[in-house]
Specification:
By secondary structure, this protein is α/β, with parallel strands linked by helices. The chain folds into 2 domains: about 1-130, no CATH class; about 150-444, Rossmann fold. It is about 50% helix and about 15% strand. It has 15 helices and 15 strands. The strands form 5 sheets. The chain has a 7-stranded parallel β-sheet with strand order 5-4-3-6-7-9-13, sandwiched between helices. Strand 6, helix 6 (about 225-245) and strand 7 (about 255-260) form a beta-alpha-beta unit. Helix 1 packs antiparallel against helix 4, helix 2 (about 30-55) packs antiparallel against helix 3 and helix 6 (about 225-245) packs parallel to helix 7 (about 280-295). It is globular and about 90 Å long.
Length: about 450
């Protein structure tokens, strides 16, 4: 689409809309009209290649296929309308004249600047993707002995997909619950795909269940409807898992059920371990309901672990990817005061911890899934800027975020928890990335 933007700019600049007017002599030759034609041809080729590639590599919904067809038809119509204009331009005498068309010239200049910035941003993203590293997945679950059968919900998510790849690569049998069959290709074989827990027969042997499914909490403001949906998605899924466990002839050994450090609420600088109390807020309400829904599995003889996950850092998703664009343009910086704590964990360390939890029979109840050294938001942004060779000085006012985001901003952006993984450390789990610098060096 960047080429299309450039084309529009060229048409306005060189077609008399503003800027410098160029006329071509008889014949096509080389020059502005030839350049426009070249851009048109390149855009046609790229568009058709993109359509074919998407059709072959993605299972597009019917509506998107229809949209693609309509866009192609509209684009073809535009080209047909432009052709006589280009021919007429080509027949005009050669000439150069500076013209100004008011707002149209300003708009054309803005388009040109925007296209240039998009190109710079794409080039920076290409370089960043080239620098990103992804270690082999099969070495992450070495603590899990034998060949286990593991059911994963949320298996196509940022964490679940990596866990499924790690278990499958290490020779374990993965049963992945996916709600959207179009995302099945995200999971490398071998894996057994199901779209409902009802598809699992009662005699199925399952050694462990990892419950990660849930509506994302950071993709929109927390309206009443959004809050209800976030809670229901987690509680309902966990209820379904408990019902599955109840009807299985042989119960799984462990249920590793997701939760989050939001369970603790907002405690400013206080250090929080698994024995800490909570403060009332929506994050606590959500996590408390999620953990409560998993509790009946313990009454069925299954070891239950509530994994209180912090901010997850990785290469293919997570909150870090949302920060990269402003940082690449040199616009990154602290949020609010920057003093709020960020308890983070590198994604592969989280996968290793999940495997460690499954393999440790005496580990039950809440387990903090965070690195041993949390940092403040100011330190986090400083380290990210250093790693990307960008400044981190553009502070986002907390008052503005509160006005826009309300509770969402207070709890996810301006609040924080200083969480330590006491249970994991006391049981001998060793983090590969204890420091933020180590994590960034691993993924950037």
């Amino acid at each position: 689409m960047d080429l299309l933007i450039v084309l529009i700019v060229l048409l306005v600049l060189f077609g008399g809309g503003g800027g410098i007017y160029w006329g071509m002599g008889a014949g096509w030759g080389v020059g502005p009209v030839g350049l426009i034609v070249a851009v048109l041809v390149a855009e046609i080729v790229i568009t058709l290649m993109d359509f074919v590639e998407e059709d072959l590599s993605r299972k597009l919904p019917p509506s998107e296929r229809i949209n693609h067809t309509l866009l192609a038809i509209n684009y073809g119509a535009i080209l047909v309308l432009l052709l006589p204009v280009l021919i007429a331009w080509a027949m005009q005498p050669i000439g150069v004249a500076v013209v100004y068309q008011g707002l149209l010239s300003i708009a054309a200049t803005a388009c040109a600047v925007g296209a240039a910035l998009c190109g710079i941003r794409d080039f920076a993203a290409m370089r960043r993707l080239g620098r990103m590293k992804s270690a082999p997945a099969d070495g992450l679950v070495e603590k899990l002995p034998g060949r286990k059968t593991v059911l994963i919900t949320g298996a196509t998510g940022f964490i679940g997909s990596r866990l499924a790849a790690s278990l499958g690569g290490a020779g374990h049998h993965v049963i992945a619950l996916i709600r959207n069959p179009a995302k099945a290709e995200m999971l490398p074989p071998p894996v057994t795909l199901i779209t409902s827990l009802d598809q699992i027969a009662s005699e199925t042997h399952i050694d462990a269940i990892v419950n990660l499914a849930g509506e994302p909490i950071g993709n929109g403001l927390w309206t009443e409807a959004k809050r209800a949906k976030i809670i229901a998605s987690r509680v309902d899924m966990t209820d379904e898992i408990v019902n599955l466990i109840a009807r299985l002839d042989r119960k799984p050994e462990v249920l590793v059920s997701g939760s989050a450090i939001g369970w603790y609420g907002l405690w400013a600088d206080q250090v929080l371990t698994e024995s800490a109390k909570s403060h009332a807020c929506f994050s606590h309400e959500l996590c408390a309901a999620w953990e409560k829904a998993a509790r009946p599995a313990g009454e069925l003889g299954v070891r239950v672990v509530n994994l209180r996950i912090g901010l997850v850092l990785g290469t293919e998703g997570g909150f870090i990817t949302r920060l990269l664009t402003p940082f690449e343009f040199g616009l990154g910086g602290p949020i609010g005061t920057g003093r709020q704590w960020m308890s983070w964990i590198e994604r592969d360390d989280l996968i290793r911890l999940i495997a460690y939890v499954m393999a440790t029979p005496d580990l039950t109840g809440p387990v903090n899934a965070t690195a041993p050294i949390p940092v403040t938001n100011a330190k986090f942004t400083e380290e990210l800027g250093r790693r990307l060779n960008r400044p981190a000085v553009f502070r986002i006012p907390g008052s503005l975020l509160r006005r826009i985001g309300g509770g969402f901003a207070d709890e996810l952006l301006l609040g924080g928890q200083r969480v330590l993984p006491n249970k994991a450390l006391s049981r001998g789990f060793v983090f590969r990335h204890e420091t933020l610098r180590s994590a960034f060096e691993a993924i950037l």
